[in-house]
Specification:
TIM Barrel; about 475 residues; 17 helices; single chain; binds 6-O-phosphono-beta-D-galactopyranose; globular; two-stranded parallel ribbon; GH_1_N_CS; Glyco_hydro_1; hydrolase; Glyco_hydro_1_AS; hydrolase activity
Length: about 475
């Protein structure tokens, strides 16, 4: 029984509306930034970094193009229609918790409406009610790559301060409409990823930025998201006194490639920059080293007089984060280029990689948990973790995924080891408990689920759901609260 987790540990899974729902223009929903994300087949460093960029021209073409095969996120896995069946499968596994997001454009199609779309409000009420009926606790992400495309085209997304008010309006509708159903809220998904994916996270279109000021625009947009996160945290506590509001970080734990102090210094800077995003939402102020970094880079952020107080007085209740891999940093640019097949950074020779080049590091999760708890002393929940893989359906319909069971088993053991060292971890939601559309590549073949969905990268298939071997394994883990690890 050495792996038994704390009583009431919240085991479950995590989804995002834009990657599962489909029904991209149903019942009054407006177009979101995700709806113009195209399918990408190759996974190379350049392609990975390149294809996430966007242009007004690409957007306008996509808005006229109804070839849903080109835009996999428009179809997702049709969760919008099948959610009762999928929730029943999650309940069969014994889920205590499910993380979902509310697509902003189902409630506010362009983001600027003064009243919400009733059909959107109704859909999420039915989804959340069904989760409650199945005794599954919702964790609701308010911004998960689903901002209105109209705000991106009209204002260059979050660069415009006015978008704060539109987001607060959207969140207030959610808090009031679902206050009897939802206790746990998350503001921005992987808020740190704005500097890696400025369009899907903040609606920023490079050509709408002042030439040479693209990076400044990203951090201006980020500041507006920080202010919005604080304002909605305040509103949520007022509307739902028992609520818990969290921030969310991509935990990119990075190791130095050698003990050369230059590598160590580069790694330290990378890890501190990664913390910056949670620092602001947990400590309520910008770290002085980030302010100095802005000065050196000539980045000037416009703040309103009231912003510092807003940030300081409305910090979050808990920290959530995603963890998939660890990274390795070298000051030698040739090394990074030479390693080639990892999506980011230098390849770590001590670690295996997934088929998409993400380095699999279970101990890195324990390291991450200890680092984060030591820094923030806040209750934590892991809200994304898992391995994308090309699963095979056998002739008899079975799907054997020992690699996924091994990935989870090793990561769960490290979670328990961290808890035994004093870390306050209150839950875990695997990423993509059911196969869904990849955020980064829009592929279906990058499968994360315990449940297989019959659909290929081009959208062919019956959408039939099938239990993989890992479905039965995770069910046992939840039943035994980890004792069966
Ligand atoms: C995170 C996103 C998730 C999820 C995950 C896996 O950044 O928050 O939405 O997609 O990445 O990435 P991918 O789907 O590209 O494999």
């Amino acid at each position: 029984m050495k792996y038994k987790f704390p009583e009431n540990f919240l085991w479950g899974g995590a989804l995002a509306a834009n990657q599962v729902e489909g029904a991209w223009d149903a019942d009054g929903k407006g177009m979101s930034v995700a709806d113009v994300a195209m399918y990408r087949s190759k996974i190379s460093v350049d392609d990975y970094k390149g294809h996430l960029e966007i242009s007004k021209d690409l957007i306008e073409k996509a808005m006229q193009d109804n070839d849903i095969k080109k835009y996999p996120k428009r179809r997702g896995i049709n969760f919008y229609e099948y959610y009762k069946e999928d929730l029943a499968l999650f309940a069969e596994m014994g889920f205590k918790v499910l993380r979902v997001s509310i697509a902003w454009t189902r409630l506010f199609p362009t983001g600027e409406e003064t009243e919400p779309n009733p059909a959107g409000v109704k859909y999420y009420r039915e989804l959340l009610t069904e989760m409650r009926r199945l005794h599954i606790e919702p964790i609701v992400t308010l911004s998960h790559y689903e901002m209105p495309l109209a705000l991106s085209l009209k204002y260059n997304g979050w660069v415009e301060r006015k978008v704060i008010d539109y987001f607060v309006r959207f969140c207030n509708v959610c808090f009031n409409a679902y206050k009897d159903l939802v206790k746990y809220w998350l503001t921005f998904n992987e808020i740190d990823s704005i500097d890696r994916h400025p369009f899907i996270t903040a609606g920023i279109i490079p050509e709408l930025c002042e030439t040479g000021k693209e990076e400044e625009a990203i951090y201006q947009a980020l500041h507006h998201q920080f202010v919005a996160s604080s304002l909605v945290t305040k509103a949520c506590h007022e509307i739902i006194p028992s609520s818990q509001v969290g921030c969310m970080l991509t935990k990119l734990t990075t190791y130095p490639n050698t003990c050369n102090p230059l590598d160590v210094e580069a790694t330290l800077k990378k890890n501190l920059h990664n913390y910056f995003y949670a620092d602001v939402q947990i400590f309520g102020e910008y770290p002085v080293m980030i302010e100095k970094w802005f000065e050196r880079k000539g980045i000037q952020i416009v703040m309103a007089p009231e912003d510092k107080a807003i940030l300081k007085e409305n910090t979050v209740d808990y920290l959530s984060f995603s963890y998939y891999m660890s990274l390795t940093e070298s000051v030698d640019p040739e090394l990074e280029k030479a390693s080639g097949n990892t999506i980011m950074g230098v390849k770590n020779p001590y670690l295996p990689s997934s088929e998409w080049g993400w380095q699999i590091d279970p101990l890195g999760l324990k390291i991450s948990l200890i680092e984060l708890y030591d820094r923030y002393k806040k209750p934590m929940i892991i809200v994304e973790n898992g391995v994308g893989a090309k699963d095979v359906v056998e002739a008899d319909g079975s799907i054997h995924d020992p690699y996924r069971i091994r990935y989870f088993s090793e990561h769960f053991k490290q979670m328990k080891a961290a808890i035994d060292e004093g870390v306050d971890l209150f839950g875990y939601t695997s990423w993509g408990p059911i196969d869904i559309i990849s955020a980064g590549t829009s592929q279906m073949s990058k499968r994360y689920g315990f449940i297989y969905v019959d659909q290929d990268d081009e959208g062919n298939g019956t959408l039939r759901r099938s239990r993989k071997d890992s479905f039965y394994w995770y069910k046992k883990i939840i039943e035994s609260n980890g004792a069966d690890l």
